[in-house]
Design brief:
Layout: H1 2-25, E1 31-40, H2 42-47, E2 53-60, E3 66-73, E4 87-94, E5 106-109, H3 115-118, E6 125-127, E7 132-138, H4 143-149, E8 152-157
Antiparallel strand pairs: 1-2, 1-4, 2-3, 3-8, 4-7, 5-8, 6-7
């Protein structure tokens, strides 16, 4: 009886491991939910000491809903990039392509798998808890340079919900 229990448990563990391995290898597809546009505020950046701060607006693809956010970018070492306002645009991606109030709140970071620097992706991405940001454009420097200098961005909602 004990041998059967051990064999049954081993079979369950092997099946679970095979199932997990198959599911973990799949990259979940993400769909476009909207566009996030951020404009840096040089006057606020100087107060926080070389930490760029920006006002951001998310516009949903479906329904045209909007939500305002405030962003704090990774601290940088050069001052010339924060002396004038710059605009950054991202494509916001979610699993189902739908926008939700507050979905961009929190920390967004570059994946730690090294794929950003190897050229494996055409456009740099930042991953958050419920969405990903794919860099579309940056007014002050090339998109690749911006992504390397700012691998972390923290967002806070400036308004409670979405508006039209």
């Amino acid at each position: 009886m004990r041998t059967r229990t051990i064999a049954f448990t081993a079979a369950l563990l092997a099946a679970g491991a095979a199932y997990a391995r198959g599911n973990l290898g799949e990259v979940p597809t993400q769909q476009a939910a909207g566009t996030l546009t951020c404009t840096t505020k040089p006057e606020a950046s100087l107060i926080f000491g070389r930490t760029p701060v920006a006002d951001c607006t998310f516009v949903a693809d479906r329904g045209g809903f909007r939500q305002s956010y405030v962003a704090m970018f990774t601290r940088i070492g050069r001052s010339e990039s924060i002396e004038r306002a710059q605009t950054v645009r991202w494509r916001v991606l979610t699993r189902d392509g739908f926008a939700r109030p507050g979905m961009l709140v929190g920390l967004f970071t570059a994946p730690g798998d090294g794929s950003q620097g190897s050229g494996a992706r055409a456009l740099p991405e930042l991953a958050g808890r419920t969405a990903s940001l794919r860099l579309l454009s940056h007014s002050g420097q090339s998109a690749a340079n911006f992504a390397l200098v700012h691998p972390r961005i923290d967002f806070a909602a400036a308004q409670a919900g979405m508006m039209r």
